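## retry 2 of 3
previous attempt timed out at serialization; input unchanged, resubmitting
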Amino acid sequence: MQSSAQFLQPPASPLPPKQIQGTATTTKTLSIPNQCCKFSRRELAIGTNSSLILLLGSQAIEPLNLSRARADELTDSPDKIEPEEPSRKVDYCSDQNVTKRAFLEVSVDGEPIGRIIIGLYGDKAPVGSTRFSKLVSGAAGVSYRRKEFARIMPNYVQHGGLRSFGVDAELAKNTGRTMEIDSLVDEWEKQSEGCQGTKNVARSVSIIVRDPSKPPPKMKLVARKGKLEIDQEELGKDVNGTEFTIAVKDSPDLDASALVIGRVLDGMDVVERIGQVKTVKENTSSPYFRVAKLIGDKRAVVAERGFNRPYSKVIITNCGLMD
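## retry succeeded, writing output
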């Protein structure tokens, strides 16, 4: 309260007591300021609040003026620094030279919906594109003909490929072809190192080389012929390098499991039509499913395999090479 009263007093400093005792005139003159400086508690409170507002206002305005001044200096300066544009990632896999063209004719529940034309990257993915072209043309003894699309995801559609057992495996074996995917994995690793950004961009066609639901392979210690060796965990046990995907939208979640071998040149409307087929609803968020999978209930594993599967039969009725 005392500091507030001192702040509100007139700027003229009062005379010393000795001068006040000099004459009556001086005493009358000084009685006026004494009367002016008598404030009630309410007036002192209002004055104190006003002083604080003035002080805070001046402190807030000062940095604002400084920032405006700095902005004016940057604007007027001839050597002003332009804001840097964000660096753009190069889509190494999305713009490649097409060496071969293949086609897939698709039907939904027996009704033809059109043809998909695919350009294969024979230069950058020779192993993957060769395998795909042999399966499309039937040169491997087996073909994608009459095989179904197994999963329909929001960003991509996935073909079920060939079976590693039964008729498909026997036909492949008779032509000297195996289901091993070692070369595909090597090519996938090269592509993972060479590609920048998302590899499975929209329109990309890829071969699955490992199970996307499993974690990446790790190094482990194994015993061979009585010696301990460091080796990588087995890859491709559940996949055989014949399943492929077509990306409807950019699908970075596929980069950890799929090798990009080409892109759709024509027929994306057919791919989008496949993506609109109704599927089994995914239920992984259910607490019952989580508990069942946690305790290793086989019913949860079977149910998970059925998630995102189409209710309708989406089949490749015909396929082959165009060049």
